[in-house]
Amino acid sequence: MWRRRVARPPTPVLAAALVVALTLPAIVPLLRPGYWRSDDGLIHLFRLAGLRHAVAAGGWYPRLFPEFAFDYGFAVFHYYAPLSYYVGLFFTAAGLSTVVAMKATFALSLVIAALTMWWLARDVWNGEWAGILAAVVYTYLPYHLADVYVRGALAESWAFVWWPLVLWAVWRGRWGTCALGLAALVLTHNLSALLFAPLLAVWWGVVTWTRQPEGNTAAHWLAAGARLAGAAALGALLSAFYWLPVLSETRWVLLAADVGGRGFVRHLYPWREWIARTFVYRYVPDQQTAAEHPLSWGHLALLAVILWAAWRARSRPRVRWLAGPLVGLLAVILFLLTDTSLPVWNLIAVPFGMVQYPWRWLGIVVLLTALLSGAVLQVVRGRQAQVAFVAGVAFLLGFTGLRNLPVEPLTPDLSQYPEVMWAEDFRLQQIGATWTAEYLPRWVREERWAVPRSVERPEVSRVVAVEEARLVDASPWRYVLDVKLTSPAALRLHQFYLPAWRAWLDGQPVPTWPSTSLGLVTVNVPAGRHRVAFAWRPTAPVVAGDMLAVVGVAVGLGWGLWNRRRWPGVPRSRRLAVLAVVAVLLGAAGGGVLVKRNAGAPARFSPTSVAVGDLAWLVGWERVPEAPRSGQTLLVTLYWFSQCSTPANYKVFVHLTKPDDGRPLVQSDADAGSGYTPTTRWVPGELVLDRHRLVLPVNLPPGEYHLWAGLYDFTTGERLPVAGRSDGRIFLGRVWVQPPGKE
Fold first, then answer.
1. Structure pTM?
2. Domain 604-737 has CATH 2.60.40.770
3. What are the b/e assignments for 212-240, b being 16+ CB within 10 Å?
């Protein structure tokens, strides 16, 4: 009975279920509590936290994360492809924590990548077991596992999803799917799209060659080229809102140095260094080779079997036409990993030098190996033998790949975001949750490790003569300040300058410019009473990219509506109505879920205007939540407007007291900016955000309380004077504490 069942190929549904089941051991480490330590895992986690906070503040596509880089701001999504983070965002919309959502996003990438590879290989090699074998190989080759568990490379793990989908679309002539897959790939990881381009060209050539008719071959090739070009153009239109600003405005930041860079030279090694030393694979840093990600013995054995099978089945047209070019491309890519390929790299440094690490080509190696593995079942006779071969490969690759997988537990406290991100940057002497500060604006002259540290001698000593200052409105991407100056002054945001930051003086646009060694957003303001507004606004390339994306959506919908084969017997008017209703419903449902899950309790901003000595004015404050419960943490954000530089590192206090008793019940005493923007870093005319957390005791009685703030000298304990008060305290407002309980 068992043999008869095995002799029959599984149905597609059962085959897909088997693929998912075979993928589960690869995601078991993600089921452990907490997070795990990896090269970039925390970086992506912080970005997802930043996206979640931005959506809560109303920024659906935040090109700028203002709280990154110690509150100086990094335009992360202006340059880094955002799509994979929105997968995590939808998991948070379902109620998962940021950590669990990120783990689920990685797990989903492994599962869907296996399914897309199965879908491709089963079609190419005309067999379910060939597809299942390819999916297993695709999942368990060490580089794919290392992408998730060692490198923590979120975007690259999702690139594994789109590669097989695009190849399948070309194989089947589904050019709409091809366009969507290419757009998704660009919006996931642009470097993976660059690495994929040669394979796509070879694959298109092979498919076109195998299907050319007997007659007019020139017309056949022209038509095939036009289809691919049309799909690529549509994919480019759909993703233009991302790539057009990147191409146009990379010169603003250090990322421009990667174009034509030669960092890849340090990662080219002799071929021996690309072979693992042990049968059971060892990952970085225990790989015992100079190459960071050598080929495993299981991978090499599989390549040998593939070559043998391709030779044995060379008489079969499908194997002959597909295996030869793909094996040749695989050999070329493996050659590009070795030091003997340096002359070739010198020729392709632009644009392929941007990949930085030649071992990124291993993603394409894994893709080719998995696809070619399906050819082995062309020569393995008998269904039982095929099942046994698939099981053997799954055990071999699973055991050797998972046995030494490094999964060191990590417990980041995202309730302390963004301070936990700043602490990690400070520890690593980095900035903006990146390794190379590629999004640091080129106007910043300060060393990145020195940005969050105190300075002995302030670089700007001129005093801003202020009679009044009040922050009228504040949001992550917009600030409105009313000031009365007795002399002209330069006013600054605590944000790195980028041309997207615009300014208005009394409603009229005025130029912004970078000032100080930190390149802060600055505007010149004349003497008198004025309203100064700063806002992050779309640049011309952003507007153009958005318009092109809209055109791409219109073209795609138009093609779908007028394609009769996909709507047999349905009038065009009904097609349009159906698509419009579906689009509206999906948009409303997705938007409603995200708003409901991510909005949370918005911050309540309160303007104020209090001078603190000659150092600064407190111009506004806000709290989250507005009415906290006993046992909760109350986040209080103060907005300081600096009047002068100071060599003294003053402390900031925030106290919660009873209305009739001035003694602090709960307090926070800390350096300004959580210690990463001390008062020695304040520049005259700068608007500085200053966060403080008050942990309310569980036994704090519910009721009305008063909130106070101020500055004091830590060495003497003396508070800076506050106009109208003798105790140096600023009354912020009343806070109503609720009883502890469920939110």
1. 0.93
2. yes
3. eeeeeeeeeeeebeebbebbbebbbbbbb
